[in-house]
Amino acid sequence: MVVTTPKPWEEVRFALGDGARWVIVGCADCAAVCQTGGSAQVDDLAERMEAEGFEVLARVDLPSPCDRRLTRRDLKRVARELEAADGVVCLACGGGAQAVAELVGKPVVAGLDAHFVGTVERVGVFHEQCALCGECLLNETAGLCPVTGCPKSLRNGPCEDANGGACEADPGRDCVWELIWERLEALGRAEAFERARAPAPPPRRPRSTGGKGR
Questions:
Q1: Is 187 helix (H, G, I), strand (E, B) or coil?
Q2: Between the chain's N and C termini, which has fewer beta carbons within 10 Å?
């Protein structure tokens, strides 16, 4: 899931500008789990905006704002409000905010900052697990990602200064390559540790899996 945090109110307030009437869109998927864009957060934002003189014409929770097909369908429920609004405040990741902006044809204010793809340990505690590098190593590293687990994103074993299982760059954390070795050994796959891996490819953006990307 995409882990998000709320933007500072001052930043959102500045982006609202002179617009008076708004529709607030929330995300019932990742942002709801993060408690940054679910129905409760949509209501909280609406109350704050109304307290400062803005008119909130509609509040809508979208299942996955980043899915243009679903978003196009679900925004029809508030078509009249969107027509009358000066813009939309979107409590979703950057992908969701861009999908909404593409569909409504009006200013869209992003209310959240997206940080990483992570897993949930418990409410409010998330761990970065995937850097979206496009060259997944998990089949060779016993399900532990060295790109996110190592501060240096080393792909071919630990650095020379790893000490007793502790990370050289961050002594307060375990060396992910030590953990990879231990897990591979426990699984009887120690030979995988010796494989040479190509350097990470350079970032390729924007990227799409098909179509024209828009």
A1: coil
A2: C
N residues, the chain? 214
Q: Are 100 and 88 in contact (CB under 8 A)?
A: yes
Tokens, residue 210: 């098909």
**Contact yes or no for 85/22 (Cβ under 8 A):** yes
Give the strand order in the sheet containing 87-91.
55-62, 21-27, 87-91, 108-110
Domains of the chain: 2-115 (3.40.50.1860), 133-194 (no CATH)
> Residue 104, SS3?
helix
**Paired tokens of 176:** 């992910």
What does the alpha-carbon distance between residue 125 and residue 110 come to, in Å, rounded to a whole number? 23
Q: Which two tokens stand for residue 24?
A: 């607030």
The pTM of the full predicted model, rounded to 2 decimals, is 0.80
Q: How many Cβ atoms from other residues are within 10 Å of residue 153's Cβ?
A: 14
Helix (H), strand (E) at residue 110: strand 108-110
Q: What is the mean pLDDT of each run of 10 residues along the chain (214 residues)?
A: 95 95 97 97 98 97 95 96 97 95 94 91 87 85 91 88 82 91 92 82 56 53
Query: How many Å apart are CA 132 and CA 45, to the nearest integer?
Result: 31
118 forms beta bridges with: 128
